[in-house]
Specification:
643 residues, Rossmann fold, GMP Synthetase, Chain A, domain 3, 9-stranded mixed sheet, 19 helices, 33 strands, globular, AMP-binding_CS, transmembrane
């Protein structure tokens, strides 16, 4: 699972270590394997040196160059000011040819296949030039309809058209509002309201597993100002539109007759200008609106470049959605490194997806653990050739060791790069690295330039070489991390109450980390009451608000999630206190809660267990102690697994 020295020198990170290592580390530098920790520690102390090197490796072109890499003179900005004075359009960087990395007009930008197409037919391809022309066509239509700075939402599967729309919105100087296509109308409405979106792109239907599910009708239920509707198939939408809405064909019609349809002048903006609003659930019930700036794609791309070794010649596939942070990360990680983006328009759960991975020649495949478990249990990829895959990546949930071993075996036991980060970081702060010995389901290192400590219950950092469990504290100088929130106080959320370390106010992330004797890191859950269900972060408060109203017998509920003892996705357990005089069966409540949660929050969430108890454990100030309930369930599962 660890590269040998010779192979390590051929990787993206290994090449720059060989070039710059002797100069930066002197005689201490040996090779990328032996000197990995030394080099990574150097990037923490001197992030400006590392980023000056990395910017030359990515397809990032400045309209006006930065005055410097990092300015720390403004003490009101604990994260520093990155690339001050620079002006660019990051979407244009994605679309233009470049010498290094080598991207040419006839390079394959995207490869895709629609679910239901003949699996023996050729995959579809679009070149960089064709992609640029399509993006410009949409950008012209946007420029005619909206004003620079307008927020425009996307709520649809991650198709080729969704990618084109995403890039066009940014090219035109507008802001993408990311909404997952699995959300209920209420959740869509919240995100449209918080972002002040002027319009939303969506499809008439979604096709999954051969079945059609309405999407436009769900979006309309959220009362958006204007909807641009794409057909899931063919040229015409299959639904009746509201008067203020418009079909994709009509939206583009004007520009098809435009004198210069293939010309568009990008909106060049300061590097800290907002390009994308994503959402992450806090514990207050309303999702935090997290703005990505043009720094965010640089950070996210650099992580894939350095740790997953994504670059020219790679075909990168990761079943995801532009409504989740992994969607934009995947998009930029391809177009800013010269890799080809691979998209399957359909469900990733069946053999059709596996056949696409084979036929597209995917070299890097990203997953979530629940997806791997499904592939393994259904044996749907049996007989397929995945041996072009040089590495896997995994995020979103705790991995299962047995499932990881099975997945790795599908390509001669290639490594699985575990990634753990956050929307507000635009990246992973801990990773697995092929430069180090690996353990399935664990992380071997913090990412490049990332400093962190693990805090004890008093907020005091443990020594870096000590096995321990505690809340993580991140060093604040972190290129690409947020410096603002749209609907919450950024300082209160990420810095207030955090201890100082070596003169720095640590940044809160909220994960509880366990560092093992061998130095590996395992994520043990959240310090707050945020939970991770199937790779989707939500809060206990959101779940409880829905469950409290689900049945007249309920006095109050408490939602907790726990990871099974043998690993795998977290399971959702609802504790219930009934009103006096009421009786109710746990199994009946389980059905009621599941239906209510799927209707009001997310159709992918499911309740695994319901426990009725007489009262909840509380602090002296009456604060609910979900941790005690979580520990109770964890203990029961542990005992059961040993029986």
């Amino acid at each position: 699972m660890q590269l040998n020295v010779q192979d390590s020198k051929l990787t993206n990170l290994g090449k720059i270590m060989e070039i710059h290592g002797p100069k930066l580390l002197g005689t201490s530098y040996k090779d990328p394997i032996a000197s990995f920790n030394l080099f990574r520690e150097y990037t923490i102390r001197h992030p400006e040196v590392y980023w000056s090197i990395i910017l030359k490796e990515l397809s990032v072109t400045f309209h006006e160059p930065p005055k410097c890499i990092l300015d720390t003179t403004d003490k009101s900005r604990p994260g520093g000011t990155w690339l001050p004075g620079s002006v660019l359009n990051i979407a244009e960087c994605c679309l233009l040819p470049s010498i290094h990395p080598r991207k040419e007009d006839d390079s394959c930008a995207i490869v895709w296949r629609d679910e239901g197409d003949d699996d023996d037919s050729d995959v579809n391809r679009i070149t960089l030039k064709q992609l640029r022309e399509q993006v410009i066509l949409v950008a012209n239509a946007l420029d005619r309809t909206f004003t620079k700075g307008d927020a425009i939402a996307i709520d649809m599967p991650m198709t080729v058209n969704a990618v084109i729309i995403y890039l066009a919105i940014i090219l035109a100087g507008c802001v993408v509002v990311s909404i997952a296509d699995s959300f209920a109308a209420k959740e869509i409405a919240t995100r449209l309201r918080v972002s002040k979106a002027k319009a939303i792109f969506t499809q008439d239907f979604i096709v999954r597993g051969g079945r059609k599910f309405p999407l436009y009708s769900r979006v309309v239920e959220a009362s958006p100002h204007k909807v641009i509707v794409l057909p899931v198939s063919g040229r015409n939408v299959g639904v009746q539109l509201r008067e203020q809405d418009i079909s994709w064909k009509d939206f583009l019609a004007y520009d098809n007759q435009h004198q210069r349809p293939n010309h568009f002048t990008p909106a060049y903006l300061p590097v800290d200008s907002m390009i994308n609003i994503l959402f992450s659930s806090g514990t207050t019930g309303e999702p935090k609106a997290i703005p990505w700036t043009q720094l965010s794609p640089i950070r996210s791309t650099a992580e894939g470049w350095a740790h997953i070794n994504v670059g020219v010649g790679d075909v990168y596939c990761w079943p995801t959605n532009l409504g989740w942070v992994m969607g934009p990360i995947l998009l930029f990680s391809c177009f800013l490194t010269g890799a080809t983006l691979a998209l399957y328009h359909g469900s990733p759960l069946g053999r059709g997806f596996g056949k696409f991975v084979q036929d597209a020649g995917v070299t890097v495949l990203g997953t979530v653990p629940s997806l791997v478990k499904t592939w393994k249990n259904t044996d749907c990829i049996k007989g397929l050739d995945w041996t072009k895959i040089k590495s896997f990546a995994s995020t979103g949930e705790t991995s299962n060791v047995d499932d990881d071993l099975w997945l790795s075996s599908k390509s001669y036991y290639k490594p699985i790069i575990e990634c753990c980060g956050g929307t507000e970081l635009a990246s992973s702060y801990i990773q697995a690295s092929p430069f180090q010995p690996q353990a399935f389901g664990a992380f071997s290192t913090a990412s490049m330039t990332t400093g962190l400590v693990i805090l004890d219950e008093h907020g005091v950092p443990y020594p870096d070489d000590k096995a321990c469990v505690g809340e993580v504290g991140l060093f604040p100088l972190y290129l690409g991390a947020t410096d603002r929130l749209l609907n919450a106080d950024h300082n209160d959320v990420y810095f207030k109450g955090m201890p100082t370390f070596k003169g720095m106010r640590l940044r809160r992330h909220g994960d509880i980390l366990k560092r093992t004797v061998g130095g590996y890191i395992v994520v043990q859950g959240r310090a707050d009451d945020t939970m991770n269900l199937g790779g989707i972060k939500t809060s206990s408060v959101e779940i409880e608000r829905v469950c409290d109203r689900a049945d007249e017998s309920i006095l109050e509920t408490a939602a907790v999630s726990v990871a099974p003892p043998d690993g795998g996705p977290e399971i959702l357990v609802i504790f219930v206190v009934l009103k006096k005089g009421f009786n109710q069966q746990p199994e009946k409540l389980k059905t009621i809660f599941s239906k209510a949660i799927q209707t009001n929050l997310n159709p992918l969430f499911k309740v695994s267990n319901v426990k009725i108890i007489p009262e909840f454990p509380r602090t002296a100030s009456n604060k609910l102690l979900r941790r005690v309930l979580r520990d109770q369930i964890q203990h029961e599962l542990s005992v059961r697994s040993r029986m």
